[in-house]
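Problem: given the chain below (341 residues), write out its structure.
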Amino acid sequence: MTRVPFETVYEVVTEAFVRAGMRPEDARTCARTHAESSCDGVYSHGLNRVARFVDYLKKGWVDPDARPTIVKELGVIEIYDGHQGPGILNAYFAADRAIAIAAEQGVGIVTLRNTTHWMRGGTYGWYAADKGYAAISWTNTESCMPSWGGKNTRLGNNPFVMAVPRKKGNIVLDMAMSQYSYGKLQVTRLKGAQLPYPGGFDKDGNLTAEPGPIEQSMRILPMGYWKGSGFAILLDTLAAVLSEGLPTSQIDQVGRGSCTGCSQVFIVFDPRQLGGEEFTDKVADSVADYVNSSTPDERSKEVLYPGQSTLRIRAEHRANGVVVDDGVWAEVLALAGRTAA
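Solution.
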């Protein structure tokens, strides 16, 4: 492992995306999102995803010049077609539109069909909360997880995000529908470590905490067993219905890598038009403080609210450099046309 200054990570990823055919301004937006994900400790959707995104650009699975176009407008709801453009750019567009509608109406709902991988879903929760808005967002994906009781993949991991603004630190939940995302499995395997708890089944149906056998079998464990399975099914259905887009079963037929053709939902609220900023802060503070005052269990030193560890990792990485996997960093440097120092 190596530490690299945040701005260096950002510059190198930008160069890699420009070399892959993106406009400099678009490359900077996407690169900053990848860099910020790794800075927040979400390596699986930061530097670890750069090579795959470049590959998709080169294959034509992501159109770097595509932009969302309006499909339907109904009160506070707008539906857009993403035309399989860069998922990060499409998601920021949708988030901005939902924020703009919420600023006028109190709530804004924007759905996006035919888009591509938005990388870290939590990005858009943090983005809205940093602007003072509460948000709920999710995406469906290609099938990569069995339904509860099944052996073959039929469900997307369908990341789900909730965010509440707070002056002392936003409360942000960013979760996959599995106990651990495939990104977490990859990061854990690269470290040569085991998962803290069993995360899926091996090819013989044995529950295991070894990430490699789970990746190979693709029998990843739904969070909450049957509950996570049901949650994934409903998120997939709603994403497709609300965006007039594709469900997982049809995304599988697109056959252009992870999430190409997916459907997404962005719901944004303006708390300042509800109880007001002071009231929102008071409630959020009381929740965070109450959680933090929990008595830690036998394995823990403290109890944190969603997003609290992210804020700590972000501050530490900004001060001391982003921790990067040497192999992944070498690959990104090569894509940028650089050589390792």
